[in-house]
From TrEMBL:
<feature type="compositionally biased region" description="Polar residues">
    <location>
        <begin position="1"/>
        <end position="12"/>
    </location>
</feature>
<dbReference type="InterPro" id="IPR001647">
    <property type="entry name" value="HTH_TetR"/>
</dbReference>
<keyword id="KW-0238">DNA-binding</keyword>
<protein>
    <submittedName>
        <fullName>TetR/AcrR family transcriptional regulator</fullName>
    </submittedName>
</protein>
<feature type="region of interest" description="Disordered">
    <location>
        <begin position="1"/>
        <end position="26"/>
    </location>
</feature>
<feature type="domain" description="HTH tetR-type">
    <location>
        <begin position="25"/>
        <end position="85"/>
    </location>
</feature>
<feature type="DNA-binding region" description="H-T-H motif">
    <location>
        <begin position="48"/>
        <end position="67"/>
    </location>
</feature>
């Protein structure tokens, strides 16, 4: 993946920023939406400022007016993809005390996470980059955790201590992330299905123990 401007420019304050004006912010959101859609379809391979400009129907200089270079643009696009994914997951289920267990929530959400339109491909590539070059791309994994964990903590029983909520949320995140990587690399759907059932049983036991 090439995150340079494509012409030797680094985007280091070479152009005036939109500085958060209402008009500038609206234009920035419009550009980001277009580039996020392109990433969801085409992935991170060969991502560059010039490719982003083509997807947005503008020039790399216009992008540098609104963003602090290719890495900043990539960061914001991936954050937006994750926000969409979290929203899609929450839209299909409601975690209400006495109505749905943690295990049932995971069972309902898992198919949503597997959908291509959820940005699965590019988000898997982002985690792969974080593993391959943590010095440069480790933030892709760290920011994923910061985005997902609050949602996972929120679905835990309200009467649990905060530390327990965090521990269970970390377990869910790490396990589902592992399943997604396994699916992307091996396609072992039967093994993943068996693992998912084991996770659900573990969550049921955890919740029963706290009842």
């Amino acid at each position: 993946m090439n995150t340079s401007a494509g012409d030797g420019s680094t985007g280091q304050a070479a152009y005036r920023r939109s500085a958060g004006s209402p008009r500038g912010e609206a234009r920035r959101r419009e550009l980001l939406d277009r580039i996020t859609d392109d990433l969801a379809i085409n992935g991170l391979v060969d991502f560059s400022l010039r490719r982003a400009a083509r997807a947005a129907g503008t020039t790399h200089k216009v992008l540098l007016y609104h963003f602090d270079g290719a890495d900043d643009l990539l960061r914001q696009a991936i954050v937006q993809l994750r926000e969409q994914r979290i929203g899609n997951a929450l839209a299909v289920t409601t975690r209400e005390p006495g109505r749905q267990t943690l295990g049932a929530w995971v069972r309902t959400v898992w198919p949503v996470l597997m959908r291509a339109e959820s940005g699965l491909r590019v988000l898997d590539q982002a985690i792969g980059l974080a593993m391959y070059d943590p010095g440069r791309y480790g933030w892709l994994g760290r920011e994923a955790s910061r985005q997902y964990l609050p949602t996972l903590v929120s679905i835990c029983p309200a009467d649990w201590p905060e530390q327990r909520k965090v521990e269970v949320a970390e377990m869910i995140l790490a396990t589902l992330r592992g399943f997604l990587v396994e699916w992307a690399t091996s396609g072992d759907t039967s093994g993943i299905a068996a693992g998912l059932e084991a996770l659900i049983r573990a969550l049921d036991r955890e919740e029963a123990a706290g009842a």
